[in-house]
Amino acid sequence: MLPTLQRLLLTVAYGSPRKADGAFRSEQVRKLLLIRRNGIGDMICTLPLIRNIRAAWPKVQIDVLASESNACVLENLKLVDHIFLYRRGKGLLRNHYFNLPHVLRPIHEQSHDLMIAVKGGFSPLLGTVAFATRIPWRLGYVPSRGHPMDFCFNLKVELPVEREHQVESCLRFLKPLGIPQTSCDLSIHLDPAHVQFADEELKAAGVNAGKVVLFNISSERGESRWNSVAIAQTAQQLEKEFQLPMVVCGLARDREALKEAQRISAGAIRRAVEPPSIHHFAALAARSRFLVCGDGGPMHVGAAVGVPVFVLFSATDPQIWRPYGVPFACVQKGRFVTDLTPTEVVAKIRDWLPTLP
Questions:
Q1: Would you say the pTM of this structure is higher than 0.90?
Q2: Which of 145, 190, 203, 212 is most buried, by the most CB atoms less than 10 A from its CB?
C-alpha cells in the first residue's frame, strides 16, 4: 500500500514517467541523461563510467545533470553534449522537492530515453529526482532487501554486499546496459594556461617541479580541516628530514589561514597560493612530489592528474573514498583531522616516501 501511495503522490507532484515499452534494449537509446550531484570528487569518480559509455555509444546524446560545484570537472573533456545545472532556489525553493519542477523543466524538453542516477548507494531524494525526470528507463541502485521507493527505478542494480570504491560502484552501471568496461580513466583536461600558472607559482616560490610538497588547506567539511600550526610544523619537519619544501594552497576564504601557516613555518612554506579554479589547482598538484590534503574533492583531483596523494582522513571510509589509481597513504584518528599530530603525520610519510616511484 505504501509504495502505491508514494507513486501516486509523486505523480501528482511531478507527472508520470513516459511508458517504457517491452524489455530494455540498448539500441533504443538515442538520448541519455546521467545525474551526478554533490561534490568535485563525486564527479571525478564518475568519469570512468562516462568514458566507457561514450566509447560504446558514440552516437548517443549524453547529457549530465550536475551540481553547481562539480560541473567544472567536465570542462573541455568533450565527453558529454549538454550539462544541466542542479541549482538550489531561494526561499521555499531551497527545498529540493519544491525546486524539482524548475530544475527539470529544460530536461523534460529533451525527451531522454534513459537516465542513470549515479551514486554508490540508494537515496530516496535521488529516486524522486529520477521519477520526476519522466524518462521511461531509469537505472539506479536499490537495497537488496527492497525499499518503498524502488518503483522509481525500472532498471535496478542491487547494492554490493562488500564495501568497494566509489569508482567501482559507478562502473557497475555498465552491466545492465550491456557495455563492457574498457578503461578506468579519471583524468581531467588541463589547458596550457593552467600549466603556465603552476610553473609561475613554483618559480615565484623558488622551488622545482617534483621537489615540493603541495598542501591543500581547504575543505567543505570542518572535520576535515587541519590547523595552521600543525601544517607549519609538518612543513618544517618535511624540509628538515627530506629536503622537501612546501607550498600551501586554498580558496580565497582560507587566505588568513594560508598566511598564518606560511608566517609561522620559518621559511619551510615557500608560498601561499589561491588557485582560481580546480584546473589551476590540478596543475599545481601535478607539479608536486606529492599532494597532502584532507578527505574530500582535492584528493580526487590529485588522482585525476596522477600524482601521489597523502590524505588526512576524518571519519570518511578510505576503502570507499581513497584517491583511486595513484600511490596513496593516509592517517586516520577519530572523527576529526585535528586529532592528528604533525609527528604522527610525518611518521607515516617517512614510511611511505620510499615506496613512491
A1: yes
A2: 212
